[in-house]
C-alpha cells in the first residue's frame, strides 16, 4: 500500500505566517522547527550559563558566602538539568536533526510533521516551569540525578515540578526519536541507499534508537519516584522497605545512554564539517557506521559503571568495567578516522574548523579520563569528586558544545544566506578554548586531591586552583559576547554567502540558501557520494 | 504571489515523483510501542529485583487470588480475537458487522476494567502497605491506564465505522489497524504481567 503525501495537506503554507513571525508560530516546516529548537535551546543555555557562573563565583572562596547552601544546591540542580535536557539534547538532536535530516534523506519534511511540532512545543513550557519552580518553595535540590532518599526528603514541590518537567522533556525526546527513525528509514528518496547517507543520519539513527529504548525507562522511574513523594509509597525509600539502588539502576539505564544521546549527534556533525573544510572524503565511512552502531549497543549495557560505590557485586563491577573499556574501541576508531580525514587535506582555518579541531582535542582528553574512570579502583578513589565533573564537562562542553558552535558557523550561511564574521568567530573560539581548558583542566587535580562535588564549601588549600577555574568560567561567559554580536551583526549586515559558500557536496547545499519551503525547486538531488571531495585530484594521480 | 503559485505547481509535479512512499505510519506506531514496552520493561525489572533482593517483612506476603486475573486474561485474549474479526469484516466492506465486533471488543475491555477494580477493592492490602503492594498497584494500574485509553480509542473507531458517514472504511483502514496493533500490544503486556505478577 502506498500513500501519497500532499504537501498542501501536511504543511498548509497559506495558513503559516511569513518572515520572522513564522518562528513564533506552530509551524510544521522542519526548517522552522529546527531554528525554534536552536534559539529556544540557546536561551536556556544563557540561563544555565548564568547559573554556572553563580556556582563558580560561590566556589571562588572556600566559605559559602555568595549564596546560602540550599540555594547553591538548587542552582547546581537547575544548572545540570537545564544544560542537559533543555540545551544539549534539544539542540544537538532536535535543532540540527530537524534542519538537516530531511535534506540528507531527500525528503520535503519529516515523516510526522505534527508530531514534530508537538515535540518542540513541549520544551518551552516545561523549561519555564523548571525555572519558575525556584519561586515556589525553592527548586529541586537533589542534583540532576535526583537520587532518593535525598530527592524524597528535600522540599517537595520543587522536586515534583522537576519530575513533571523532565517527564515532558522525555516525551518530547521520544516523539523526536520516533520521527527521526521513521524519516531516515522510510522517507529516503528513491534510489538513495542507507550506506550513501551522510554520517549525521547514521548518528541520528543510533541516537534515536537509544532515545526510544532508554528514555521510557526514565519516565517510568520518575513516575515511581513521584509516587514516593506524593503518595507515600516506598519504592525507593529505605525506611519503608524500598531500595535506592533500584532507582540508580533504572536512572542510569537512561542516563548513561543519555551521554551518547548528547555526544553521538556531535560525532555525526563533526563528520560533516571536517571533510568540507579539509576538502577530503570522510576517512573510513563503513567503519564510522559500524562504530556508531557498536556504541549504541555497548552504550546500553554499561550503565552500572556510575554505581561502583553503590554496593554493586564484584561480577557486576567486572562486567561493567570490561564493557565500558570496550566502548573506547569504536570511539577510538572514530577519533582516528577524523584525524585521518584531516591528514594531508587542504585545510581552511576558519571558525567552524577551529571549533571542530577544538572538539577533537577536548574530546580525546575527556575520553581518556573516561577510560580511567571505568576502572573500579580508580573510580572508587575519585567517585563524586571534581575529577568526574571535569571528565563530564570535557565530553559535554568540550565535545558537544564546541560542535554546536562549529555547526552554527558552518550552517549559518545555509539558514540565513549571510556569512558570519570570521574575525569575531576566531576571537570567540580562542576565548572559549582558553576559558574552557582553564576552567576544567584544574578540576582534574582538585578531584584527585579529594575535593567533593556538589558542596558549596571546601578545604581552603584548594582555593587558588578553584580561583583559576573560576577565571576560566569568567572567560567562557565573556566568550558568548563576540558570538552574540557576530550573530546579530551578520543577520543584518553580513555579506551574502551565495548558495554554497563552502563548495560542499552534501545535499543541503545543493539548493538555494536560505532554502525554499519545499527544500528543492524540483526533484530532490540524488547524492551518492556526499564526501566525494578531491576525487578528480586523486584520480589524476 | 506568482512565486507561491509556481512553487505550488512544482510541488504538485513533485508529489508524483518524489512524495510517493510506502505507508510508514505503522512503522512509526511500532516504534512508539517499542518505547512504550520499554516503560513496562523498566517496571518489570524493578519488580523482579525487589522480589529477589528486598524480602518482605513476616506476615506481609499475600497470596494473590487467581480466579479474577485468569478471567481477565481470557477476556483480553478473546477481545483480541474479536478485534481481528472486526478488521476482517471491514476489509470485506461489512461496516455494520465490523462495528458490532468493535463494540463487543470495547465491552470486553470495560468488563476487564470492572473486574480489575473489583479485585482492587477486595485485596487485603493497600497502595502504601509494603513494597510488593506498591509495585502491584503501579504495574496493574499502568496497564489499566493503557486498557482505558485503548477502550476509548476502540469506541471512537467503532463510531467512525458507522455506515455511510464514518471515516474509517475499507479504503481508510489504517486507524482501525493502528488501534488493533495497540490493543494486541496491551494484551501481550497483560500476559507477561499475569505470568510475572500472579504466577511466579
UniProtKB/TrEMBL annotation, chain A:
Protein's membrane topology: Multi-pass membrane protein
PROSITE patterns linked: COX1, COX1_CUB
Reactions listed under catalytic activity: 4 Fe(II)-[cytochrome c] + O2 + 8 H(+)(in) = 4 Fe(III)-[cytochrome c] + 2 H2O + 4 H(+)(out)
Entry's Gene Ontology BP terms: electron transport coupled proton transport; oxidative phosphorylation; respiratory electron transport chain
Residue ranges annotated for the Cytochrome oxidase subunit I profile domain, each copy included: 14-528
GO molecular function (one): oxidoreductase activity
UniProt keyword Transmembrane, yes or no: yes
Annotated compartments: Cell membrane; Membrane
Record flagged with keyword Heme: yes
Gene3D superfamilies per the UniProt record, alphabetical: Cytochrome c oxidase-like, subunit I domain
Principal location: membrane
Pathway: Energy metabolism; oxidative phosphorylation
Gene Ontology annotations for the cellular component aspect, listed alphabetically: plasma membrane
Sequence intervals crossing the membrane: 32-55, 75-96, 117-140, 160-185, 197-230, 250-270, 282-306, 318-340, 352-374, 394-412, 424-448, 468-489
EC number of this enzyme: 7.1.1.9
Alphabetized UniProt keyword annotations: Cell membrane, Copper, Electron transport, Heme, Iron, Membrane, Metal-binding, Oxidoreductase, Respiratory chain, Translocase, Transmembrane, Transmembrane helix, Transport
UniProt-listed PANTHER family: CYTOCHROME C OXIDASE SUBUNIT 1
The protein's role, per its UniProt record: Cytochrome c oxidase is the component of the respiratory chain that catalyzes the reduction of oxygen to water. Subunits 1-3 form the functional core of the enzyme complex. CO I is the catalytic subunit of the enzyme. Electrons originating in cytochrome c are transferred via the copper A center of subunit 2 and heme A of subunit 1 to the bimetallic center formed by heme A3 and copper B.
Similarity comment: family membership: Belongs to the heme-copper respiratory oxidase family.
Name of the protein: Cytochrome c oxidase subunit 1
Provenance organism: Prochlorococcus marinus str. MIT 9116
TrEMBL record, chain B:
Pfam families assigned: COX3
Bilayer-spanning residue ranges: 27-48, 60-80, 101-123, 135-160, 181-199
InterPro entries tied to this protein: Cyt_c/ubiquinol_Oxase_su3, Cyt_c_oxidase-like_su3, Cyt_c_oxidase_su3-like_sf, Cyt_c_oxidase_su3_a-hlx
Coiled-coil intervals, chain numbering: none
Source organism, top-level taxon: Bacteria
Subcellular location: Cell membrane
Family matches, as Gene3D superfamilies: Cytochrome c oxidase, subunit III, four-helix bundle
Membrane-topology descriptor: Multi-pass membrane protein
Keyword field: Cell membrane, Membrane, Oxidoreductase, Transmembrane, Transmembrane helix
GO annotation, cellular component aspect: plasma membrane
Gene Ontology MF annotations: cytochrome-c oxidase activity; oxidoreductase activity
Any GO BP annotation: aerobic electron transport chain
Main localisation: membrane
Residues annotated as domain Heme-copper oxidase subunit III family profile: 27-200
UniProt record similarity statement: Belongs to the cytochrome c oxidase subunit 3 family.
Protein name: Oxidase aa(3) subunit 3
